[in-house]
Design goal:
This protein is α+β, with helices and mostly antiparallel strands and about 240 residues long. It contains five helices and 13 strands. This is Dihydrolipoyllysine-residue acetyltransferase.
Length: about 240
């Protein structure tokens, strides 16, 4: 039992809000205080799956995944919608020139968010490689403190848990966070015909002080459009 978890009677335990758990608690409380808005979009990733299967993978390289595609789509959309790639500090919205994506990684003790620097310049294969390395380094406790600093936007993926949707909490001073759900087979109507498609729910939470609903919706639709037309993931922002 860790030092943060203390026995509290037979069959029960108490978890002190200190250390990593305390840092998470303080940050989540700050994020919850923001006037946040959540909106969602259903994305058909059937074409994205097929595109991934067609990608060649070098020996020793990480196999590209839907998560890497979401990161690439998000980075491209942020480069095109800089109001979402911003930090809110002292009542000033600071739009950032580069896209530094925070990637939420779950640990037994809590949640850590290592950062992929200059994500808008990196192809899907490289993002897959960095994602795997950062997740492994985080779980092993081998990353330096600077690896968790400087994110301009966060992506959190709970698809592996099988959930259909969720609304993540902002990671201040960032003004936006994107939640990604599981990919599930659904019946959809296309051109009057019913077919099966691989669908996922994208949930954007944003700080309404920094950005309004319409431009936020445009950003979310841009992420969706990139995922549904995966050839666009090879382009430049």
């Amino acid at each position: 039992m860790s030092a943060a978890v203390a026995e509290a009677g037979a069959g029960s335990a108490s978890i002190a809000l200190k250390g990593l758990r305390g840092a998470i608690a303080r940050n989540m409380a700050l994020g919850w205080q923001a006037p946040r808005v959540a909106m969602g979009a259903e994305a058909d990733v059937s074409a994205c799956r097929a595109w991934l299967r067609a990608q060649s993978v070098g020996e020793g390289d990480a196999k590209p995944t839907i998560t890497a595609c979401v990161l690439r789509a998000t980075a491209l959309a942020l480069a095109a919608h800089p109001r979402m790639n911003a930090l809110l500090k002292d009542n000033v919205v600071e739009c950032q020139g580069a896209v530094h994506l925070g990637l939420a990684v779950a640990l037994d003790e809590g949640l850590m968010v290592p950062v992929i620097r200059d994500a808008e310049t990196k192809p899907v294969a490289q993002l897959a490689q960095e994602t795997r390395a950062l997740a492994a380094g985080t779980r092993a406790g081998q990353l330096p403190p600077k690896a968790y600093q400087g994110a301009t936007f966060t992506v959190t993926n709970l698809g592996m848990t099988g959930i259909d949707w969720f609304t993540p909490v902002l990671n201040p001073p960032q003004v936006g966070i994107l939640g990604v759900s599981s990919v599930r087979e659904c019946a959809v109507v296309r051109d009057g015909q019913v077919r099966v498609a691989a669908m996922t729910t994208l949930t954007l939470v944003f700080d309404h002080r920094a950005i309004d609903g319409y431009p936020a919706a445009q950003f979310l639709q841009a992420v969706k459009a990139h995922l549904e037309a995966p050839d666009s993931l090879s382009g430049r922002p």
